[in-house]
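Weekly modeling sync, notes
Attendees: S.R. (lead), two postdocs, one rotation student

Agenda item 3: backlog of single-chain predictions. S.R. asked that every request posted to the team notebook include the full sequence so nobody has to chase files. The rotation student volunteered to paste the first one in as an example of the format we agreed on. Action items at the bottom.

Example entry:
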Amino acid sequence: MPKPTLAQRTNFKTWLRYYKSKFANTTIPEFYIDDILTTKSSGISTTDNVRVIPFDNFGTENITTDIANDTLFYLPALSNDVITLSVGASSYTFQFVGEDGGIIYDGTTYGLNDSIAISTTKSLNIKGLGGALLQSSNTPTYSVGVSTTIVSEGQSVDFTVSTEYVPDGATLYFNTATSMEAADFSDNSLTGSFNIVGVGATAGVATITRTIANDFATEGQESFSLTIRTGSASGTVVATSSQITVNDVVASFSVVESTTTVNEGGTVTFTVSGSNIPNGTYYYSIEQESGIIAASDFNPASLTGSFNISSNSGTFTITIADDFTTDGIDSFSVDVRRSSVTGTVVASSNIITINDTSRGVGSASNGLTFGPVQVNRDNGNAANTSDWYTICDLDNVPDGSSIALFIDGSGSMTQAVVQASYELLVSKLAARNITITTVTNTQEDWITPFLVDLP
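Predicted structure, as returned to the notebook:
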């Protein structure tokens, strides 16, 4: 059968109240009111005995015996009804919110499965709505202890929540009473939930661990406490911990390089260490100290990178590119940074010198090609040119010949970087009526283009 409509349920409750004298002190199986309830707790059986207490709006009903015996009783309340329940010399006024909107007591709205404390030892548990199906139980008790009252950033404190008369596995909530921010905690949160242990030696107990974030902010001494709540993180406060004092700590960094002199093709390993360093990702940037330091001087071609620090230690390795460029002696240092490759510098290395160990000019010549050729990066400045004509001994090429030149544009050595040297070569070839075919591409392919372009 379909559940009765709101009008039918209302009529039935009105009928019960009209015949109040006939139903007073009557105990019936829950089956008879099951369809009147809009919702009820799990575990309530249709065969459970229920005492029906019809009442007049704004009336008073005595439930002293019901409380003493933990009787399951039903109040056939209509929307916005008000009733006063007396227990011995005490009384409690409830207002009903709609069919299943809950019960307002002392300014707080309680819903299905909530408990309304009516004394230090007894509570009324809401077992059903659509009216109110209520049953008393011992009032839960809560306390919270702490493992310490003083911690430093990076350390933890355990909060032990002990309860009595709280259901096994019940969910409780906490929030943090403090001027600290969520980022001051390792989980980046000021609230949370936990469950009460239901079995074993720790039944009725739960432990919450709060770890203080080890950050870079200079905050001075701070403090916080936990409030334990029911229902939600903003629900009723049932216990509050002691204040926990948090001492600020300052991280210190140092960086040590494996060598201060390295050849092209060699590596330098940097070890970063210190104290109170937050675990995580850090960054480095390569800084020019003398000569010209470019990304292409390193393999891979980059002046920045990242690495991880854990337990106050981290390492990273930089490889020097083994190129054919005559660079002279260059030097660089490394800045260790936090947050990003442009973030705050926390440590700097000593200066590392790069020895120019480029291969000899023409050492790979085979009669058909000549190389390698070491050239300067003139960046269009005629004062810094390399004389490619002389380096390649082009005086031995007959007048009117045709030669080919490939410029690899896949890295940093583009034509613009050697433009002045290129123009010097072209002028010397033109003086001897030697034709030059120049090909530039980024595929490092110096053969295929000449199959079609060479005169």
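Discussion: group reviewed the output briefly. The longest strand covers residues 280-290.
Action items: rotation student to repeat for the remaining queue; S.R. to check formatting next week.
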